[in-house]
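FORM 7B: Structural annotation worksheet

SECTION A. Query
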Amino acid sequence: MANNENEGHPGFPIGPVGDAGKPDYTLRPNVVLLMAGTNDIVFSINLDGAPTAMGNVIDDIVSACPDAALVVAQITPSLDANWEKKRGIFNAALKDGGAARADAGKQVALASMDRFAPTYLNVTDGIHPTDEGYRQIATVWLDAIVAAGENGWIKPPLPMLPRRSGVPASPQGRVSRGAEASTTGRIRRTWVWNIPRWPKRVDASPTEP
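SECTION B. Predicted structure
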């Protein structure tokens, strides 16, 4: 992938995804994009506790970066009927949890993947999107970021904090320049965006390159 400045961790369930990002809190991002949970669904890792684990990661980010707009994405469809049932339950809980936090005044928004069609999935594994699927995910991210900007949530980035002694830098954490996600990791996550101002809304059809 040409634009690979994002952070993804192959095989990580929700909790370790959140832990991996903690060293990057000192970057003081003004926009954080979070997408996790696919491995929990596919490999049946603590299914009942997955929404709570995701809530804990969200709360950690909000606590550490209260000025940031946090956009949380639902996980995309799969071609497996059993996974789809679990995904529906997880995504519904994610939507409710995000709404509750927004109602409480937290800058937490949902990037709904409801419009992501299964035709954009790789039929080899039934999980990972095709290149066009990643474009669709990027469009969903962009729309959510634009909406957060229109809500007044996106402000100029704050100065970075000194990294605490003994806390290593995340080896994969970078400032992202794109809304694409990892094509190699099972969990697809773009971690940090520093955006001085929100972008204009653009319309992208599924047939656009």
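SECTION C. Observations
Helices lie at 14-21, 38-42, 50-64, 81-103, 131-150. Confidence is low (pLDDT under 50) at residues 165-209.

SECTION D. Sign-off
Analyst initials: ____
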